[in-house]
Amino acid sequence: MKAEFIISNTRVDKCPQEPIPEYAFIGRSNVGKSSLINHIAQVKNLAKTSSKPGKTQLINHFKMDDKWYLVDLPGYGYAKTSKSAKKTFQALITRYIKERKNLINLFVLIDSRHEPQKIDLEFMQWLGENGVPFSMVFTKIDKISSNELNKNTSKYKKKMLMTWEEMPKTFITSSESKIGRLDILNYIEELNKQLGGEIRKLF
Ligand code: GTP
Ligand code: MG
Fold first, then answer.
1. What's the CATH code, domain 3-202?
2. Ligand 1 center to residue 186 CA distance, Å?
3. Which atom of ligand 1 is nearest to the CA of 37?
4. Which residues 6+ apart lie within 8 Å of 3 measured at CB?
């Protein structure tokens, strides 16, 4: 698979203008967005990763097979950044999601090790209210047992179904153990197919 870095920026109007479909990865800082992009692209340092939260600070476009974009975004909810930095990231993410016409689906990454987190539930609620299509991606499953994984995903399901009629599409991944790549790629392929050439109509 061809994967090519195109551009990083803070402004939605400076993002690539080509009318091709795009899929963005979002979630709390350190959840593994950039690592998952590298795993999917099978290129080690395509997106920059770090053990410290707050690494990705820009909107990063990667072109895949000359046909579609993968987008790496800054994380939300990083406790140690200043209030003003948080607001800046929040505004950047909000504007990107609301204004970016190419965006076909958001992949919301959730750390599989934790109990359902308020910030993630609220974020997905907001996506629902704004009619933004999204899927859930549980990350870092190499760090827990399959029992724990089942327990944590069930808890999420229970919480989600308190406000949603059905669960969004869900993926299970580990960039470390190389799990989940094809499931996500097949889903993107399916969405690309459904779209056909219709993306132009969005512009
Ligand atoms: P920000 O850019 O700061 O928002 O973080 P991010 O969501 O892009 O996370 P990143 O991919 O930089 O990964 C954060 C840390 O988690 C790094 O130390 C990664 O090596 C580690 N990590 C990411 N995915 C996995 C995984 O599947 N398993 C394990 N064990 N570690 C992972
Ligand atoms: Mg990152």
1. 3.40.50.300
2. 23
3. 11
4. 41, 42, 43, 46, 62, 63, 64, 70
